[in-house]
């Protein structure tokens, strides 16, 4: 992605020649309590639709990420490393130095209208959360969703942010004309673990309220149970509590994903672990001795347990590569007749 200068003479702006080399950005801070200590770097990009590298394990090819960095501040966030590519710190800097592509909606609309675009699925929330707190101020997603709706372009969103509820009407409009997938990420429901490991996120129960609201409006919503954190969130009673809560929310599926610790995230997570759970450091070093992923036997064990619980509570596990059908709703809402063919939820 390349950057262009914003009006350097504006009141709160300064050309930041450090952040992106020779390119300039506008840097702002806001006094509102929810943004205390957070700095926003507003940039104008030249492209917003990114192709996922071929070697990726992700089941999608195109992504849109209007933000870099995330105030949700999850200690395990795998996207931390991407901040270093911008010359920013991957620890506290990732949590508090937020890069905002302020022209994301117009860039996307332009790309969707270009002759070379073939209407492929676009995944959002795949790098950082597009419904993090910054979205409340910058309001980029309504323009992005409107562009996708107007071009009937299929898309999916994965989020921990309850702010997505603001855009429910737009999402319903889009679901009438194209495939729309919504997934919410809830790895555990343990309150103590949430407060320390995901300090900037809405509480797990609030996230499940999002699921409840979406399903109440006829838009099926899956839960990505991620991450399951070894030795802290993987006890049988914890898994049961999480799956039971997910089922009670009306989620259509639950997909477990064990914590992975890629470079950047690994150092930050391990330093957090050393402060909060020092007795676990050696166990983690052994469990992740071979790299970023927990051993296959451990991943299989968690997957099996979650799938068994999902069956017990009456929700289906999402199976990789199997698109799930979601009800398309007409103008009359959930009880109304389908306006289009059933839409498809792409597994994130
Ligand atoms: S919400 Fe997602 S993107 Fe944001 S810090 Fe947490 S894991 Fe990272």
Automatic annotation (TrEMBL):
Keywords: Iron, Iron-sulfur, Metal-binding. Pfam families: Radical_SAM. The keyword rRNA processing does not apply. Residues 56-305 form the Radical SAM core domain. The keyword Iron applies. InterPro entries: MJ0683-like, rSAM, rSAM_sf. This is Rv2578c family radical SAM protein. It comes from Streptomyces pimonensis.
